[in-house]
Amino acid sequence: MPDSHAPAFASGAAEPDLGYRAKGFYYGGKWEAPATSNTFVSTSPSTGKLLAEVPLAGVNANPISDTQAVAAARDVLATLPLLMKDLKNPDLRSRMSLAALKAGLAFSNTKTALAHSISYDMTLNHGLPHGIACSFTLPMVLGRAVGADPQRDAVLAQIFDGALRDAPVRLEAFLASVGVSTDFASYGVDKAEADAMIHKALDGVRGKNFIGVARPSA
Ligand SMILES: [Zn+2]
User: Fold this and answer.
1) Do 105 and 117 fall into the same domain?
2) What is the pTM of this model?
3) Residue 208 above 70 pLDDT?
4) Are residues 129 and 102 in the same domain?
């Protein structure tokens, strides 16, 4: 006997047409065309069928990764200094764990970019632990990213309070406050090696997922 309460799209039935057609990105009150033809695929969790192809912002970024990334970054900035002073606090530890989970969800569908790319040389050749190797270059990477794309700037501005152009300096101070030097020299890397590492990273797969243009390091 048919069950009148079963949803119309129960297995075997046709997928409903949700009417989604990619229009681009809605910024500042109007639709803007995506900068590239890159898309990600959204599939139905119940049937696995294709629902839509959604355009990707910037290089690999998308609205889902942006939301997770902004939340993760804000949580880390607020929580890490408190946790460093109170390492056994279970509430702060769970807030940092949740922030790390959000960060992982963000880059699980974008791949990582420039900071991660540089980290491999720092870990393989200089023994730097992965977390420090991925984070000590973030102010430099942020400095290269700010101003590269107004849509990306709008997302970055959601992370940092105050003027975005000052954010790299403030992020450097934040990292110093939690004991992370942002200077390659602190890790035994001279300027020539650092420059070579940055240029190699910008050329690699992860570097190509970075929005900032190649510029000599400061
Ligand atoms: Zn990693």
Assistant:
1) no
2) 0.68
3) no
4) no
